[in-house]
Amino acid sequence: MKPGFLSKNPSVLWFLAILACFTLVITLLSHAYGPGVISTSMVKTLGKTLCLCLIAIAMDLVWGYTGILSLGHFAFFGLGGYMIGMWLMYERTRDIVLASAGDFPMTQQEVRDAIGTQIFGVVGGSDLPAIWTFAGSLPMQLLFVVLVPGLLALIFGWLAFRSRVTGVYLSILTQAMTLALSLYLFQNESGLRGNNGLSGLQNIPGLAADQDHSSVWFLWASAFALALGYVLSAAIVSGKFGSVIRGIRDDEARVRFLGYPVEGYKLFVFTLTAVIAAIAGALYYPQAGIINPGEMAPIASIYLAVWVAIGGRGRLYGAVMGAFFVSIVSSWFTGGRVPDLPLGFYTVKWVDWWQVLLGLSFVLVTLLAPKGLSGLVDLLAHIRSPRRGGTPMGPDQGSLQQEEARE
Amino acid sequence: MHKLFIWLAIAVMLACPVRAQDTSPQSGSVTSAPAPTGLGAILADNAQKIARPSRMTIGPVIDEIAASGPGASRFLQAWADKRVGLRESDDAVFIIKRVGQDYALSDPVTGEDAGTAPRSEIKEVKPNSGVRALIGAALVKFLLSDPDPSKRREALQAIERDGEASHLAPLRASIPDETDPKIKAEKQRLERLLTIRFGKESAERIAAIESFGSDTGLDLRGTLNPLVATRRSAFAGAPEGNVADELKPGRDISDAEAYALLVEAKMAPARISASEVQRALAAHVVNGQVGGLPLSEMSDPKAREQAYAALAKAGEVPQRLTDAEAQKLVEAHSYADIYAEPDPDVTAAAEAGLTRVSRQVSLMQGADLGLDALSLASIYFLAAIGLAITFGVMRVINMAHGEFITMGAYTGYVVQLFVPDKTLSVLVALPLAFAITFGAGVAMERLVIRYLYKRPLETLLASFGISIALQQLFKNIFGTQARPLTSPPWLEGALQFNDIVSISYIRIAIFVLALVFLALYLWVMRRTRLGLEVRAVTQNPSMAASMGINPDRINMLAFGFGSGIAGIAGVAIGLFAKVTSEMGQDYIVQSFMTVVVGGVGSIFGTLAGATLIGGLQKSIEWLNPSNTLAAQTYMILFIIIFIQFRPRGIIALKGRAAGD
């Protein structure tokens, strides 16, 4: 009998159970459905963190499993946020315009003009650019959440993979793409309000609930998306497809010589993860309330790589652990809630020194613990990986090594 | 202004003792005066005309005075400044000055002191502005041929700023006698400019325009531009005046613009705008109905028009022109741009002249752009040359390279805190920055990089961790605001070729520095033992090791060398850019682009990459000067596409050196 999906992926059940418990506990402790031990802003932070876990899974798929270190996935995340943000902002502004219009009914043109003035007043414009044509329609914008980043990733990936750009070159190229995109969005001419970005996204048009409730609902939505993303990714990496992409990661040329269309596999993974990232972004920014091009700067994508590396590459739960742990610790440190550390001659204020700590611990993880946090799971489960070390026994890279041969 | 005060003070001081001596009323001075000749005679003859001048009649008198010889300019100046008075008793003309309650008098011809007089005896002469203009024109002649060259130059500058038709004749008259060749040339140029503006014959104006050829002076453009200025207006029949361009509604101008022109020319009534219609309708809501239509239908523009028409029919709101009627009105008229200058030959010559000038200006701008691009390219090259070693030769992705640049710049800043002399401090900072970043690079290589040579992607990440730690460390030490790194005084200013083409000395210095580094790199890599060993180790570490080279040591030194160069680049970049903890970030992506586009492993590739990127960025900026962000965006897009076609860069390594 062939082993079932769950028996091949024991982590899925565990993960879903932990996620469900987490969501349930937060819900029962929130302002909306419980005693209010956890503040609404904390619920929002946790909801956002779940979205970050989702994009970390995407990053793990593309980097940990396929070996493409993309420094551009936060750009897709941001694009998804922009697409949903356009609808949120448009609808909300329309509500405001209609509410302040008085009794005399407005023509459609007048409504559009008034919305344009409201939204683009800050950048000195009043016309709605062409890209806002469908901003009034939720289904269209939801479609764009998937389509725009997906198409961008498809085109970019096709161009990059067909010319066999690999390794660090590809990383730099994706970083350049991210930089270009964020610089483009920084311009007022881009039609997305330049460096002001889109704001007021936390108010969901047509939703009567207060922030207490809506934040919990978004937490549920984020948890649901994360669960779906996890199961989907687990399904992808566990089958034959997963073997092929891991093969590509380990030795691309050999996989190609075995007859697999390497470029097609890479393009599929790259585009799929871009779409997952965009969905995560579309869930993230309504909780954050504001999006601006600064969020898509290349550094954000590198942080994404940091999370996945700290969590442990090549394991889906590692990515989730890394993203969750680092972003929670990070918001704990930068929130100024960590007590200062007096050294006598100098007091370490963690708000200032947290980045230094993060950077150095990142270096240490890369050097000493390539498995990251998920190595802890290995310890618990008594899994020991073969030791690779000592002198290589052959002339090539990747040849059998002394320690390895001993086992 | 200051001069005026000083003169005033001196005059007052001189006047005071005079007043103390002359306590008795002066009486004999007039009778004892010599019989007047020249200016004195003219003044005596025309005293009444001078006292009550009118613009119509005073011209000949001014001309006479101007021609009268010594003292004329002083008198005219005083007259224009309202410092001339007439003694009531005998109509004698004096130059006067208020001293307390009295006037101090001086002789108009000789300028000698002529005693004082109480206010009641003197009638001040106050010429009106028209007369003062005539006097001013006469004065120009004196100033233009003043013996003092600086005065002549001042007069020329005054005319250049604010020329008038009346200046032309005296300017022309002063040219033949001009002795200073420089001022003469200036006068001739100004004469031609004034001729263009105020010449009487169109032939001489056209000749003057053509005499300039493709001169790019701002003064010429300032003279020609008003000649070709146009005004847009509507006409009932064919356009009148010096027509620049006939406009057809719907093709050259929109119908709405044409209608606005009609309204401006009072050929059509102003239209009632859509918002006025909306307000009028909102004001006439009766029982939820407007003009017989329900209020809820008012979101439809057609229903609004219908309702408004109904209201207008009932006489409750003013009639509104329908679109068709407005269109008819627009079509019934003609529209044109009319030159303010009436002479068509002159405007044609001016247009032709401006075209020549603008062609020349574009050429110059092209040259200026080339210089700009060159300097940007040398900045990129300088930022990237360290990477050419660490990334290009050693294949180590060092994301902290930008922070080494910052480190160099901060070194320069700290040195300047201790060494106040700017030249010396920069000379100290350059080697010190090299030493410090060399040390930092060696430390980084020993502690981190050497464990990751086989895992390039992880090098990228680990060095990125170092990068964020260093960046925050800089913030903690130096704060977030920009720190000054001042260049030596001899690097300030710019080398000015003409009005358009210029390059600042600091950019020249950076260009030179880039060349020096290119030479240094080539020398180290190709002529020294270190370079040889570095190349050997990067090509095949085990083989190099078996030849007696210590790969660890070589890697350490090469990495330190690349980092040290980044530090020096940091000092140079800090001299013209702001020194902040994030300055390295601005260069890191571009630097990698430079190396990748140029071709990894080849220093001339890096040079070509820097030139390509710098030139490209400047040319895109030139197409859209308001938007440097767009330039960067399109440049990166270009690079991404460029790499599609030449994945190994402009200069691709071949054979064994290519590594794979």
Automatic annotation (TrEMBL), chain A:
Subcellular localization is given as: Cell membrane
Keyword line: Cell membrane, Membrane, Transmembrane, Transmembrane helix
The UniProt entry, under Pfam families, shows: BPD_transp_2
Q: Taking the first listed entry, what is the main subcellular location of this protein, grouped into a coarse class? A: membrane
Which parts form a coiled-coil structure per UniProt? Answer: none
Spell out the Polar residues composition-biased ranges: 398-407
One MF term in the entry's GO annotations: branched-chain amino acid transmembrane transporter activity
Family annotation (CDD domains): TM_PBP1_LivM_like
UniProt region (Disordered), positions on chain: 387-407
Its placement in the membrane is given as: Multi-pass membrane protein
Write out the GO cellular component annotations. Answer: plasma membrane
User: Which spans are transmembrane here?
Assistant: 12-33, 71-90, 111-135, 141-161, 168-186, 217-239, 264-284, 290-309, 316-333, 353-381
Q: Which named protein is this?
A: Branched-chain amino acid ABC transporter permease
Species this chain originates from? Thioclava dalianensis
UniProtKB/TrEMBL annotation, chain B:
Q: Does the keyword Zinc-finger apply?
A: no
Signal peptide (UniProt feature, chain positions)? 1-20
Select a single GO molecular function from the record's annotations and give it: transmembrane transporter activity
Main subcellular location: membrane
Supply one GO BP term. Answer: amino acid transport
Q: What is this protein called?
A: Branched-chain amino acid ABC transporter permease
Domain of life from the UniProt record: Bacteria
Q: Which UniProt keywords apply?
A: Amino-acid transport, Cell membrane, Membrane, Signal, Transmembrane, Transmembrane helix, Transport
List cellular component terms (GO): plasma membrane
Statement: the UniProt record of this protein carries the keyword Transmembrane: yes
Give membrane topology per the record. Answer: Multi-pass membrane protein
Entry similarity comment: Belongs to the binding-protein-dependent transport system permease family. LivHM subfamily.
Indicate the transmembrane segments per the record: 373-393, 400-419, 425-444, 505-524, 556-576, 588-616, 628-645
The protein's location, in the record's own words, is: Cell membrane
Which CDD domains does the protein's record reference?
TM_PBP1_LivH_like
